[in-house]
Amino acid sequence: MYVKPLGAECRRIWQRGDHALIGVSAGNSYFNQERLTKLLKWAGHSFAEIDVVYVDTHLDTMLIADGRAPLHAAKSSRSTIKDLRRRIRRSVELVDPDGVRLRVRSLTEVMDLPEYQKVRLSTDLAMREDPEFAATCEKMVRQVVGHRSTGDGNVMTKAHIEAGLSYLQAEAPLFVDSPSIFDVRSSVVCYHMLTPITDQLCRRDSSFRCAPENGYLIVRPTELGES
């Protein structure tokens, strides 16, 4: 696996090997069966504890922004999430058949945790009152929605931006303080690419930063390269 920590502090946290948070997006073609299995195998050899969180929120909202009818959007979202759960389950059965080290939860389940709700208060406040963080969040949403829009001819609309921001608002606490949310000493968030929000949160010169023991790794199969 190609692994790149985002700075010296992230490398230190990675080397401790306490905990990895692996976020999996529904409807993202990157997370096929082979890549999920490779990622979980790597994490199983690198960390004492692993949480896999799949995003199951605001998918229908984005489809409605695409012009889908609400009932069709809800049905499509359920099918997408069901398929993702199946892929994750197959990978977990291969990597951790006894279910000892890998925990799998939906983002909806995590959102019910009191620790998540505490961190959510601070991230929501930063989105409203920290201009740098708010701009970074909007930049990330525009990147994601922009890639999405080019695939099917849809143009980016205000509804897309609002749906994307709601999606990111639900996800952001995981990037900000995963040690508190998952009750671990330290944690690294693993993703296959650099994103605007992780780039800002791990910088010491930014106004709104991640928790001290929260790190970030770019992790992907070696054959996909370093770019």
The CATH superfamily title: Cyclodipeptide synthase
Number of strands: 6
Oligomeric organization of the protein chains: single chain
Globally, the shape reads globular
Briefly note the structural class of the backbone: alpha/beta
Mean pLDDT: 85
Low-confidence stretches: none
Count of DSSP H/I helices:
10
| Main beta-sheet strand count, sense and barrel state | 6 strands, mixed
CATH secondary-structure class:
Alpha Beta
Please report the distance between the alpha carbons of the first and last residues: 14 Å
- What percentage of residues falls in helices of 4 or more residues? 55-70%
Provide the β-strand percentage band: 15-25%
Pfam families: CDPS (PF16715)
Protein name: Cyclodipeptide synthase
Family: Belongs to the CDPS family.
Organism: Streptomyces iconiensis
Task: Describe what this molecule looks like in 3D.
The protein has helices at 8-16, 33-46, 59-65, 70-95, 107-110, 114-129, 131-152, 158-176, 178-182, 196-201; strands at 2-5, 19-25, 49-55, 102-106, 187-191, 214-220. Helix 10 (196-201) links the parallel strand 5 and strand 6. Helix 6 crosses helix 7 (131-152). Helices cover 56% and strands 15% of the residues. The chain is globular and about 45 Å long. The two termini are 14 Å apart. The chain has one domain (2-194, 201-224): Rossmann fold (3-Layer(aba) Sandwich). Strands 1-6-5-2-3-4 form a six-stranded mixed beta sheet, with helices on both faces. The chain has 227 residues and is of the alpha/beta class.
